[in-house]
Write a structure and sequence with these properties.
Elements: H1 2-14, H2 17-20, H3 27-39, E1 54-58, E2 71-77, E3 85-89, E4 94-97, H4 103-116, H5 122-141
Antiparallel strand pairs: 1-2, 2-3, 3-4
Helix pairs in contact: 4-5
Length: 150
């Protein structure tokens, strides 16, 4: 655990804070995302108050998430062993998709989101499907760590 913290501290010294940290104003959303990551084994609950950097990027443009935006985003923490998951946001609610699920299940959830939000063009839908498949393949190559449960 100390090694992980040391690596994160080194990264923080190397890269500008703007590059790795986003101003996620909504404390409730931040806590919900961290709790989701904890429940999937991608984050240690003992570190929840340690200033963790959540990375939320638009899946297509890779631009930082802005709290007022709607769309499809990937999120995770600033660790090499953490999976990136999906945050689907429409005008009324936020859906979190576990990217550890089989790709078929992930795509079903994504298609359900598109059915409920029919303002996406078919070209955009196809592009998002491709990006989700690529993200899933990237996650599979990640040397993910699993928290020990006692």
């Amino acid at each position: 655990m100390k090694k992980i913290i040391t690596v994160i501290q080194l990264i923080l010294l190397i890269f500008p804070i703007k590059c790795i940290s986003q101003n996620i104003d909504s404390t409730e959303m931040r806590i919900n995302l961290l709790n989701f990551l904890i429940s999937k084994g991608d984050y240690d609950s003992s570190m929840i108050n340690s200033g963790t950097y959540l990375i939320i990027k638009d899946l297509k443009t890779l631009e930082d998430y802005q709290k007022q935006e709607f769309g499809i985003f990937s999120f995770g923490t600033l660790t090499s062993h953490s999976y990136r998951h999906l945050l689907l946001k429409d005008q009324n609610k936020i859906f979190l998709v576990n990217m550890r699920l089989p790709i078929e299940d992930v795509l079903k959830k994504l298609l359900q989101f598109f059915r409920e939000n029919q303002y996406y063009l078919k070209e955009d839908i196809l592009d998002y499907i491709e990006k989700v498949i690529n993200l899933h393949q990237f996650n599979e190559k990640t040397q993910a760590w699993q928290l020990e449960t006692h």
